[in-house]
Amino acid sequence: MTSPCISIKNMTMAYGDLIIQRDLNFTINRGEIFVIMGGSGCGKSTLLMHLIGLHRPLIGDVFYGEESLWGADYKTRQGLLRQTGVLFQSGALLSSMTLAENVALPLTEHTRLSAQRIRHLVSYKLALVGLAGFEDYYPAEISGGMQKRAGLARAMALDPEILFFDEPSAGLDPVSAKLLDDLIRSLRDHLGATIVIVTHELASIFAIGTYSVFLDMESKTMIASGPPKQLLTESRDPKVLRFLTRGASEDSSSSAIKQQGHENL
Ligand SMILES: Nc1ncnc2c1ncn2[C@@H]1O[C@H](COP(=O)(O)OP(=O)(O)OP(=O)(O)O)[C@@H](O)[C@H]1O
Ligand SMILES: [Mg+2]
Known about the structure:
There is one protein chain. This protein folds into two domains: 4-83 and 160-263, P-loop containing nucleotide triphosphate hydrolases (Rossmann fold, 3-Layer(aba) Sandwich), CATH 3.40.50; 93-159, no CATH class. The protein is 39% helix and 24% strand. The chain contains ten helices and ten strands. The structure holds adenosine-5'-triphosphate and magnesium ion. Adenosine-5'-triphosphate (ATP) is lined by residues 15, 20, 38, 40-46, 89.
């Protein structure tokens, strides 16, 4: 549990002249369900883009184990990223392809498996996310939550060691969101995957998050890190507490909510 998987060192992220977050330093350990938290627009999705090789840091670097992601040449970087799978915030299934074709895409692009083997693997991944029998449906023919889960199946297609999920349960009903949490936990427990997840869902954060960082929009840096339950009880930062108690930390119900946070776990 304590071997470093990804280390973020002294990283500043920007779009052109606009600094989004600066001086980020943290480590994601193997087997962790690592939660990236913070208000809308603080830079969570931007951080994921930097971790998965889609956006170069202005300053600093990301390390996969000992290997520098951004100091490496393109080919080495692609090699490091082969162990990752991503579910983007928008889901982004290709609308002209069936679910099976969408999930098969990484397998046809990156492996030489036979068509029959790919079909078999695709059905298995779809079944894992509760979509057995939906192989031939098009994204427009299924619900938003089902599209999200199909996106998860595609992210898992190549059995990656590290999975990045950007708000996987946004728009899901509470029962589906709970099932998704269970799925994420079982990916970690049974496949040994490391999960990096952006989410606002407090229930998920407390139920499955093993470690977290909180990005602050005003100071443009990370202002808290630790296991979410520990931040809830030990953080003195009003912004962190407001986030973790849905804004209730300033009134008298704060301790009741903290108590509830514990009981839910
Ligand atoms: N491609 C881009 N070019 C310029 N600015 C961008 C780009 N993408 C995002 N931004 C800006 O960077 C900031 C952080 O955006 P980001 O999408 O990372 O936020 P977020 O924390 O994921 O928000 P949310 O919770 O709403 O998804 C925002 O101010 C946004 O407007
Ligand atoms: Mg985002």
